[in-house]
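sorry to bug you again but im stuck and you know this stuff better than me. theres a chain ive been looking at and ive put its sequence and its fold in token form underneath. id like you to explain what the token line says about the fold, in plain words if possible. anything you notice is useful, everything is just below.
___
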Amino acid sequence: VTFREMAFDLRSPIDRGIGVDIQLISEIEVSIENSNSFVGRNFTQAEILYCESTSDPISSFAGRWAAKEAVVKALSSCDTEKNTRNLWKGSGAPLKDIEILKSSSGACEVVFHGYAKEVATLLGISTIKVSISHSGDYAIAQATAR
């Protein structure tokens, strides 16, 4: 049995897509240091305020970045017409339209804006569940589209 087969058997029938991303924290640090626009282009004001309020802002930005990438992958894996359309604008597209907030319970909450909202609506996705972790040199996130 492969990990993929095991994961498929563990999925809920309402889970339509899954995505995972791992991010080297130092890469985000370099991006922030070398670009005046990286943070503003990819994070909402609420995300910036949250990350800057933590004890390790760079790790928080890296975790949110990984979560946004995992959300893109989860949404992309929902598309049943994979070979007929390109849903995303490429690797240079800003990720600001995918907002990762902290809910009142402390869990992450995904809010779509703009183009990401259009894609989610097109695919019939109403909810994305996200989990973020960071330790040492890496941040990792997993997203499930429903």
